[in-house]
Amino acid sequence: MKQVGWRIALITTVPPVAAALVPTLRELGHDPVAVISARRKQPAPAGREPMGDETAPEGLDVLLAHDKWSVEPLVRASRPDLALCWGFPWRIPQAALDVPPLGSVNCHPALLPRHRGPIPLAWAFRDGDAQFGVTWHRMDAELDTGPILAQAAVPMLDDDFGIDVVGPRMGAVAIGLLPQVLARIAAGDPGDPQPTEGVTWAGHFDEDYATVDWTQPARRIHDQVRAWAFTFGLSPVVGPIAELDGRRVRLIRTSLTDPGGNAQRVETGDGPLWIVESEPVD
Length: 282
Description:
Blueprint: E1 7-11, H1 15-27, E2 31-38, E3 61-65, H2 71-78, E4 82-85, H3 94-97, E5 104-108, H4 120-126, E6 131-138, E7 148-155, H5 163-186, H6 218-229, E8 241-244, E9 247-255, E10 264-267, E11 272-280
Parallel strand pairs: 1-2, 1-4, 2-3, 4-5
Antiparallel strand pairs: 5-6, 6-7, 8-9, 9-11, 10-11
């Protein structure tokens, strides 16, 4: 199918994602027609505004699904040629993915098949990776398993803390790959099957990673703190919890070098680490 004036539905709960995709797609000659988002069962975390009338890009319908089964009729109602998914919390049923004639494509923040699953950025820190990744892939009934259309690595920096820091850098890489992705779709390219080797699962953290061990190297603890910052409060337990001056605290931010101010120096298994921010735990 020739790449001219496609109607494109966006499936996302993240306003900055929609804000970045809409002008890019318009510049490429396409027509983003709707944002399909998900109703939250809980209030949005502080600083993360939900998708809605005040946060969605102008000129698009905003459709809120109450569960994954309502995604299909909402996609069907927007009559898209293509669906682009990026930052959506539910596994979308195959019936919904099959609605657009050109298919449905997802942007996953990892170098698939490594770190499939809900919190890939957190696992990049946990596994001590030197980089993040971005992968655009065709969607199927499983999670993050479809053929790859484009991917690229994104360097990881020592002071990467929080999605507000990492997100724009990864978003720029993802947007930069989009013309290549759309060109492959226009050519009818099915994408490259994901390798069977190197598959890992980025599932929610549990008790086994919730406690800080000060005998571990400073970088490993630093990465543990950063990993928990990218769980977005979705894990079933709270972490990382440390014993500090006889108190139990949750570490929020650390530094491998002295940042000055009120940061507290702590000795680890191979040298100092600075506690920049923490909070007491009941």
